[in-house]
Amino acid sequence: MESVYKEKFGTPRQCGLIPSAWGFINGKFKGFKVGQYIWLLFIFHKDPWRIWRSTKTKVWPPKFWGEGKIGVFATRSPHRINPIGLSKAKILEIRDEGILVDEIDLVEGTPIVEVKHFI
Length: 119
Hints:
Layout: E1 2-3, E2 23-26, E3 37-43, E4 58-59, E5 70-71, E6 84-95, E7 98-102, E8 112-117
Antiparallel strand pairs: 1-2, 2-7, 3-6, 3-8, 4-5, 6-7
């Protein structure tokens, strides 16, 4: 993934919050259309504490104003037990070498595992 976000600080907490946040995904994509939304399955590759937290089931998610830790699966926290993430993006342009997408929340270099139609 090529992205306007070069580091995790300043990257939106979820997709669609900033409509001019573009990215580019290399690869051959058949059957997709401009203007369509897609699901991006990706790997949280900038989480150095993932192995240490592999047994932690409760976290204090970033920007959480409640009290105490809560279950990791009930949060949007990037501090997950597993490194798998899901995000939505809008296709702006389809090229021979990949697709240009918008409304992303992923940083530069994020490994994209799968691209699926958004239904």
